[in-house]
Design goal:
The complex is a heterodimer of chains A (266) and B (382).
Chain A lengths: L1 E5 L2 E3 L4 E4 L5 E4 L6 E3 L1 H17 L3 E7 L5 H10 L3 E5 L9 H15 L4 E5 L10 H9 L2 E13 L2 E8 L2 E8 L2 E5 L11 H9 L4 E2 L11 H4 L25 H14 L4
Parallel strand pairs in A: 1-6, 1-8, 6-7, 7-13, 8-12, 9-12
Antiparallel strand pairs in A: 2-5, 3-4, 9-10, 10-11
Helix pairs in contact in A: 2-5, 3-4
Chain B lengths: L6 H18 L3 H7 L4 H10 L17 H14 L1 H21 L2 H13 L4 E5 L9 H4 L3 E5 L2 E12 L4 E9 L9 E7 L5 E3 L13 E12 L3 E2 L5 H37 L1 E2 L2 E2 L4 H29 L5 H26 L9 H9 L9 H12 L3
Parallel strand pairs in B: 1-4
Antiparallel strand pairs in B: 2-3, 3-7, 4-5, 5-8, 6-7, 9-10
Classes of the chains: A alpha/beta (266), B alpha+beta (382).
């Protein structure tokens, strides 16, 4: 069984973002690590590694589309136990919307070949769309299993999973290959090991471009349906502080309640 | 000359920091208040390699370089000094002698479980009621050969980790004639009949790191359990303590760094006379001194670790690093309380615990006075 885990490198959860007057966004992190593996993807990586440990998956391949810097996120995946990693990068991919990214991922998954399961995190903390998993399934022509909270059984070309839906849990069975996106209830991700980091630093991470994947159009900013026409910093919230003076706590509480009614807060 | 960490060392630092931030720091107060050992976090350290920092990979360890070890211990200390002390003692004091001097059979038998968290921790047993800094003349715990076994009798004190250990490396007198070749390290499984582990000592700080008095009453272990050579126990102990001192320096540095960060945070929040106290010069001076001294201490700890990593003599530098880093840590924690004012004295704020925790660092694994003695002997060729 071959498993691919599609991951993304995102700004750190503690990164401080700056937007300049021309709409250029940059960020830095007080902890010195501005970019990290998308936290939602830690769950899909963990599940991929468990498929290796518990279900005999032969390959667990971490895959990402992004600049060369994204290799650092792939190294984290290797340190957590993925068997291989692959970076898909090309100047023509820059500015892709989620459909474009799904097209690239589908081409890369087809290029790997014989993949049974493509795992995704629920969403990425930067774009926060949560669209790519399903769009990738559409491009591959595979069944999407979304919001998966447990993989119950794999065998005879089928997979049974538990999905977390609005009003409870739902158990569904589908034929392989499938695209799965996982929710955080599925597992507790392991920390990368120090031995794993050393191994990851020595690993050779292959890079593939548009030509390697025979991608000709439908990607990059030209094909994007999303228009980033105006990017600006969120204006700082303005507020004022008023201290209610009164002779007793009861009187202060009454005045506060009146004020809150007046302002239609309660 | 290169003052930069390698890419791998930076990555280690991030991983350990992230782990400590999520698993140790939020539990530090609970650990201190209840004295419960944080097994939940420590069990997660096994697969990461934090329980076998210098254990070769073939036994399941992380086989880290000396600077990475110092970084890991500093980060652990930053999050929870109690847990950090237990883990540092396990790695440096217990596994250190097994890795550096133990037979292949002992390594194969004990390291895989101890280094990966499948087992409990290890501890080193040196101090006795009448033997602290004076081990050569003071150790009264004896090990005598009887058939194919050592029979161990005696009493030890201040044994870090005893109640949470699978093994103890015990310093015993194996030659009644005395002298520098009369002591040996013997590995004793903690559940061997005849061992009595006393109740946890009541301490000022580090309450989540259990410390015990342990007695040995006709404790029988196989002759093969001697760690290293018979009669080399004192030399092995001194070598182990050299590296342990770098570790305690790193741990104290972590506590100091945490207190410094708390002090900065508070100074930027607390307002007096219409401005934050960070704008008052009296506070700025304390913070500037803390930043400077922590920086100097870090360089000294890394320098001693670097020497150790290259196999160069480092006894003097380890003593200097431990002396300076632990005293800096105590000063920084003291001033962090001062900056917090009355709140700093309250256990509602973290700095109170840090001050109590770091107080041991100038005592354990050689007091500041012993460090000065070691340094003086080196510089005066005594």
């Amino acid at each position: 069984m071959k498993v691919v885990v599609c991951i993304k490198q995102t700004p750190s959860t503690t990164a401080v973002l700056t937007v300049d007057d021309s709409g250029h966004v940059s960020w830095d992190d007080p902890g010195g690590k501005p970019n990290i593996l998308n936290p939602w993807d830690e769950y899909s990586i963990e599940e991929g590694v468990r498929l290796k440990e518990n279900h005999g998956a032969s390959d667990v391949i971490a895959l990402t589309v992004g600049p060369d810097e994204s290799k650092n996120a792939l190294k984290t995946c290797l340190a957590m136990g993925c068997t291989q990693a692959e970076l898909v990068t090309d100047p023509s991919f820059e500015g892709s919307d989620t459909v474009g990214t799904a097209r690239i991922l589908a081409a890369a998954i087809n290029n790997i070949g014989d993949v049974d399961i493509a795992l995704f995190g629920k969403q990425a903390i930067d774009g926060d769309t949560g669209l790519t998993p399903v769009q990738t399934a559409r491009k591959l022509g595979w069944t999407p299993l979304t919001f998966v909270s447990a993989i119950k059984e794999i065998g005879d070309g089928q997979i049974t999973v538990e999905r977390l839906v609005d009003d409870g849990k739902e158990t569904v069975t589908a034929s392989l290959p499938v695209v799965i996106n996982v929710v955080k209830e599925i597992n507790e991700p392991r920390y990368p090991s120090l031995m794993g980091i050393r191994k990851a630093n020595r690993a050779n991470i292959p890079e593939l471009g548009a030509a390697d994947l025979s991608i000709d159009g439908g990607v990059g900013s030209a094909a994007s349906k999303v228009d980033w026409s105006h990017i600006y910093a969120i204006p700082p919230r303005e507020g004022s502080c008023e201290i209610i003076e009164a002779d007793s706590v009861e009187e202060q509480a009454r005045l506060l309640a009146d004020k809150l009614f007046e302002e239609k807060v309660i | 000359m290169d003052f930069q960490l390698t890419e791998e060392q930076r990555e280690f630092k991030h991983i350990v920091h992230d782990f400590v931030f999520k698993e140790l720091r939020p539990m530090a107060r609970h650990t201190d208040e209840t004295g419960e050992f944080n097994w939940t976090a420590v069990k997660k350290m096994g697969p990461m390699g934090l329980l076998g920092l210098e254990v070769p990979e073939k036994y399941g360890g992380a086989e880290l370089d000396a600077i990475s070890v110092a970084i890991a211990v500093e980060e652990l200390g930053w999050g929870c000094a109690s847990t950090a002390l237990a883990v540092a003692a396990h790695n440096g004091l217990a596994l250190g002698p097994i890795v550096n001097f133990g037979s292949e059979a002992l390594k194969e038998q004990w390291l895989p479980d101890l280094a990966t968290g499948r087992g409990k921790l290890g501890c080193l047993s040196l101090t006795e009621p009448g033997a602290g800094s004076d081990l050569q003349g003071g150790v009264r715990t004896t090990a005598v050969v009887e058939g194919d076994s050592w029979i161990i009798d005696g009493a030890k004190m201040w044994m870090t980790n005893a109640s949470i250990s699978d093994v103890m490396v015990v310093l015993c007198r194996t030659d009644q004639a005395g002298g520098s070749h009369s002591l040996s390290h013997i590995l004793v499984p903690s559940d061997t009949p005849g061992i009595t582990i006393g109740a946890p000592e009541k301490k000022m700080g580090l309450k989540g790191s259990p410390t015990h008095a342990v007695t040995f009453d006709e404790v029988r272990v196989p002759l093969e359990n001697v760690v290293g050579e018979v009669g080399r126990g004192l030399q092995q102990t001194l070598a182990t303590l050299d590296s342990g001192r770098v570790g305690i320096g790193a741990l104290a540095l972590g506590i100091g760094q945490a207190a410094y960060e708390e002090a900065i945070k508070y100074a930027e929040e607390r307002q007096t006379f219409g401005k934050t106290i960070a704008h008052h010069q009296a506070i700025q001076w304390m913070l500037a001194d803390a930043a400077t001294e922590l920086q100097a201490a870090r360089l000294m700890v890394y320098w001693a670790a670097w020497l150790r990593g290259w196999g160069r003599p480092y006894t003097q530098e380890a003593a200097m690093a431990k002396l300076f880093a632990t005293e800096v840590s105590e000063r920084v924690c003291r001033n962090a309380i001062q900056i917090h004012g009355g709140y700093g004295y309250s256990s509602e704020f973290e700095v109170e615990r840090m001050y109590r925790d770091t107080r041991l660092m100038t005592i354990g694994e050689g007091t500041s006075e012993i460090q000065r003695l070691v340094i003086a002997r080196h510089i005066l060729n005594l």
